[in-house]
Amino acid sequence: MNYIEDINKFIIENFLFGDENDLENDASLLENGIIDSTGVLELISFLEETYDITIEDDEMIPDNLDSMDNINNFLKKKLSD
Amino acid sequence: MCGIIGICHINGPGKISLDTLNKMTAVLRHRGADESGIYIDNHIGLGHARLSIIDLTSGTQPIHNEDKTLWIVFNGEIFNYPELRKQLLNDGHHFYTTTDTEVVLHLYERDGLKCLNLLNGQFAFAIWDSSKKQLFLARDRMGICPLHYTIQNGYIYFASEIKSLFMEKKIHREINPIALDQIFTFWAPLPNVTAFKNINELEPGQFLQIDEDNINIKEYWHFPIPPRNEHIDPSPEELTEELTHLLSDAVRIRLIADVTVGSYLSGGLDSSGITALIAKQFNHDVQSFGIRFEESDFDESPYQKQLASFLNVNHKELAISNDDIAYHFSEILWHSEKPILRTAPVPLFLLSKHVSENGLKVILTGEGADEIFGGYNIFKETLIRKFWARKPENQNRADLITRIYPNIFKNPLLKKSLIKFFAQGLDKADDPLFSHLIRWNNTKRIKTFFSDDLKKEIGEYDCIEEIRQLIPDHFDTCSSLTKAQYLESTIFLSNYLLSSQGDRVAMAHGVETRPPFLDHRIIEFMARVPSVWKILGLNEKHILKKVFKGILPKNIIDRPKNPYRAPIQQSLLASHNSEFIKDMLGETEIQKTGYFNTKKVTALIKKLNAKKNINEVEGMAIAGILSTQIIDYQYIKNFPLTPDSPFKPNIMIDRRSGNNGLFAGNQ
Fold first, then answer.
1. What is the ipTM of this complex?
2. Interface contacts A/B by beta carbons within 8 Å
C-alpha cells in the first residue's frame, strides 16, 4: 500500500491551496515552507482521522512526518503493527 | 501635529490651482481640525491643517520670517525649541509668535539645511524661499511624522498623507506591485516606497531641496551603528545613571505643550516606565489610557490596573471586542494607506478616539524601547541561533530556543518540528540578514496567494536582495544584536509601527503621540553601548530594567515580554461580519481587482471558516488580502475627489502677481 497520493492531495489542498507543485517525495515540508508547526498538528489530525490511528507523542518527530516519504513509511509501519 | 501640503512648479512660474490646494488641505483636517491656512504665489501653493498644541492663539500657519521671504508649513514638534529660540533672539531674529514652527524657520534662515542637526523632535515640514525660488522639505530622524511626494509634469506635489496628493486629478492612482511584494514579506514597504506607483515617501532623516536647476535628496541622519572602536565601556552603574538622566530629560521636553499631555499604559515595561517617570517627576495627576481585550489571550489590563493604582494615576481603559476590530478595519486602512498583515492598528485607532473624547491631544508612548534597548524576542532568538549554529547537533543549545517561546512550545508535541523550524539557516549564520531571514521567509509564503498577473508584474524583483543592497558598508563588522536592531528599526519600526500603528491611527483622531525612547540622544547613546548591557544572558532590556527598578513594581519589571497583538481570525472572519468584508473577500471582487488567485483565496477562506484555530501565516494572509482589497476599493476604484464638507481656510495669503493683499480671506 502506498499512501503518497493521499498525502500529496492533502498537502496540496490544505497547505498549498490547490497549487499543484513539483514537490519531491523526499523534500522537507518544514524546510520548504510547506507547513509550519501548526501545520504539523493539522497533518497529525488528518492522519489520525483518515487512517484511524493514534500517533504517540514520541512518534511526532520530523523523521516520521517531515516529508511525504517519511509520512508514507511511517504510515506503512504504523498500519502493519 | 498637523497636516501639510503643497504644489510647486519647478521651472519658474506655473499655474497653481487654489481649488486643488483647498481640497488637499481639506482632506487632511482629521490631522488638525483647529485651524487652517493657505499660501499661494506664482510658483507654489502651501496648505496647513493645524492641531494647536503650542501658542494656541497666534500660531496659525503658514508662518513667515521678518521680511516675508521665507514661508513654512510644519507638522510635528521641536522639543528643544525654547533653547534654540533664545539663541536666535540673541542673534537678532524677531518673532511674532511663540511657536516652535517659527523657530525652525529662523534656524533655517540662519543655518540653511544644517538647521536639521540642531532639532530634537518629530517633524515633517516645507519651507519656501520666495526670493531664491527654492523649496526645502525635511523629515525627522526616525520617521515619526510622514511626508509623501511625487514629481510629475514639472510639478512637485507633497503632503503628509497620500490622499491629499490624489486630490489632484492628474495624479494617477495605481497599486504598486513592488510594495505588495515588500509588505507580504516584511509587513511594511521599504523606505521611500508606498503602496502606490510613483508616489514616494521622504525617508526618515532625509531632506529634499528643489529649485529650477536641481533636485537634491540627501540624508542628514542615519540610524547609527558605530564601529566597535567607538563603543563606550561604562560600568553598569554609570550606564544606569546616564540613561536615567537622558530618559528623564527626553520625557521632560516631551511634556512641553500648552495643552494637557497624557500617556499610553499597556502594562508592559516601556509604557509603564514612561508613565512612572511622568507621574513621579513631572505630573502626579497624569491621565493614562489602556486597552482591555475581550479575548483573554491578548489582554493585559490587569497589569494596567496594578500600575495605575501603584502610581496613583488617573487611568482610563477602553474595552475592545472582536467585532470592534472587524467593524473598524476598513476605516483604519483609509488612514494607513497601505495593506497590513495585522489587525493591531485597530485598537490603537479606537484608543486615540477615546483620548480625543477625553479632551486630550498629546500622548507619550513607550514606542521604540524594544528596538533601542533590545527587547524583542527576535533579538534573543538571533543570539541563541548564532550560539547554536556553532554546534548545530548540540541538543542543549537547541533547547535554549524553547525558553524564549514558552507559549508556542507549550504543546510538547510540537517541540521537534518547531526546533527544526528555528534550525533553518543555521548553516548561514554569517549572512548579514541571519536574524530576520527566518521570519521573512516564513511571511513570504503568503505570496502564494498572489495572482499570476501580479507575479508577472513583480517579475524577477527580489525584495530581500534589495535589502542586501541597502545595508551600510560596515554592517558585517557589527555584532549580531546590532545588525538585528538595525533591520528591525529601519524597516519595521519606521514603516509599520510608527506609521500604520503610530502616526496614522493617532492622527485619525487628532492625537499626537510622542515616543521619548526615540529621542535621538538616547538612540545615539545606546548605539555605543555594548550589546551585553542590552541583553544580559537571556534577560532582555537589562539596562532599562535597572533604570526603572526604583520606580516600578518588581513583577512589572520581571514579567516576561508579551508582544502587543490583536485577534485576526476571530474578528475578520466572524460569521456575522459586515457584507462589505464578505464582498471584499468574495470571488467576484477578488477576480475584479486581480491581485490574488481566486481559487486559492476561496480555499483559504473555506479552510479558515471550518477551523477553530488558524496558524500565524494564514492569519497574515487573510489580513493582507482583505486589506489590499479594501485599499483598492477606497483609493483606486472609489476615491472621493471632493472632500466631504465645504472648506474655507482661516488664513489665505495670496501673493500671485496682481494680488497685493497679503491677507485676503476671512482672517
1. 0.79
2. 64
Interchain contact A24–B (C-beta under 8 A): no
Strands B261-264 and B287-293, sheet pairing? parallel
**Contacts of residue B450, Cβ cutoff 8 Å, sequence gap at least 6:** B180, B184, B458, B595, B596, B597
Chain A residue numbers touching B420 (CB-CB < 8 A): 28, 30-31, 62, 66
In angstroms, the separation between the Cα of residue A55 and the nearest Cα of chain B is 10
Give how far the C-alpha of residue B84 lies from the chain's centroid of Cα atoms, to the nearest Å: 27
Q: What is the pLDDT of residue B578?
A: 82
Fold of B3-222: Glutamine Phosphoribosylpyrophosphate, subunit 1, domain 1 (3.60.20)
- Whole-angstrom Cα distance, residue B603 to residue B585? 11
Nearest CB to B441: which of A33, A39, A62? Answer: A33
Which of B543-552, B607-616, B657-666: highest mean pLDDT?
A: B543-552
Neighbours of B545 (CB within 10 A): 20
DSSP tally for chain B: helices H, then strands E: 27, 18
pLDDT digit string (tens) for B560-569?
877 788 888 7
Higher per-residue confidence, A41 vs B95: B95
CB atoms within 10 A of CB A67: 23
- Write down all domains in chain A, each with its CATH number in brackets: 4-80 (1.10.1200.10)
Beta carbons within 10 angstroms of residue B639's beta carbon: 12
Q: Which residue in A14, A31, A57 is closest to B413 by CB distance?
A: A57
Q: CA-CA distance, B341 to B620, in Å (whole number)?
A: 5
- 8-state DSSP, B280: I
**B514 burial level (CB within 10 Å; 0-12, 13-18, 19+):** buried
Cell numbers given for B265: 499604559
C-alpha grid cell, residue B609: 471558516
φ, ψ of residue B137 to 5 degrees: the values are: -115, 145
Letter for the amino acid at B471? I
pLDDT at B302 over 50: yes
Whether the pLDDT of residue B623 is over 90: the answer is yes
Superfamily of domain B228-373+487-558 in the CATH hierarchy: HUPs (3.40.50.620)
